[in-house]
Amino acid sequence: MIVKAKKLTKLYGKNEKIEALKGVDLEIEEGEIVAVLGPSGCGKTTLLNCLSGLDEPTSGSIKVLGKDLVKMKEDEKTIFRSKYMGFIFQFFNLIPVLNAVENVELPLLISKKFGIREIRKKALEWLERLHISHRAYAYPNEMSGGEQQRIAIARALINNPKIVWADEPTGALDTKNSEEIMEIILDMNRQLGTTFVIVTHDPNVAKKAHRIIRMDSGKIVSTGG
């Protein structure tokens, strides 16, 4: 079991009256691709942020790789994420003043596990793997949405994470690019065994996952195919 959450709640707003999560229980197996499907405002992104340690639940427990995220200090969570997690976002979150290969290098630069030459080599290898090496020295504003998302995926995977959290990874893309990005995710899962948790409102994206978790009004209403 790579992720186990029990009785998660998250309250927002003045006097914490808005219940974004209402007692969520969830387990995710290593190597799974799980889609979290539901309408806007149902709590999908809040759940992802809590499970990944980007946000604190109001109550409940979260274990990732057997480690209790709720009990970790912020600096401990930052180190844990850098070692074991990758992130893919709807609007790519590339740094505009860095070119493609420099954006991909960032996680390894932060981890300080490799020298500069080795980091550049690994980044270029990932761009080649994702068939985007011809854009290695282009800047984000010079690339299409599909190209930018490939760069973001390379950045998420360069550190060989155990789990990748993807928040609407195809939400800003057209149908063709959406299909291509999902095929990349499926391929990386097959090749590397990486666990992916994908938040989406798109049933066509969700149906490519191994398992679909459906949410509504802060609760999981079904889990399965």
Question: Mind sketching the topology for me?
Answer:
Blueprint: E1 3-12, E2 18-28, E3 33-37, H1 44-51, E4 59-64, E5 67-68, H2 74-84, E6 85-89, H3 100-111, H4 116-129, H5 145-157, E7 163-167, H6 175-192, E8 195-200, H7 203-206, E9 211-216, E10 219-224
Parallel strand pairs: 3-8, 3-9, 6-7, 7-8
Antiparallel strand pairs: 1-2, 1-4, 4-5, 9-10
Helix pairs in contact: 3-4, 3-5, 5-6
Instruction: Predict the CATH topology.
Output: Rossmann fold
CATH class placement: Alpha Beta
CATH superfamily: P-loop containing nucleotide triphosphate hydrolases
- Proportion of residues in helical segments: 25-40%
Examine the secondary-structure arrangement and name the CATH architecture: 3-Layer(aba) Sandwich
Number of strands: 10
Notes on the structure:
The chain is of the alpha/beta class and 225 residues long. The protein has one domain: Rossmann fold (3-Layer(aba) Sandwich), CATH 3.40.50.300. Helix content is 36%, strand content 28%. The chain is built from 7 helices and 10 strands. It has helices at residues 44-51, 74-84, 100-111, 116-129, 145-157, 175-192, 203-206, and strands spanning 3-12, 18-28, 33-37, 59-64, 67-68, 85-89, 163-167, 195-200, 211-216, 219-224. α5 runs parallel beside α6. The longest helix is centred in the C-terminal third of the chain and has 18 residues, at 175-192. The protein is globular and about 50 Å long. 39% of the residues are buried. The mean pLDDT is 93.
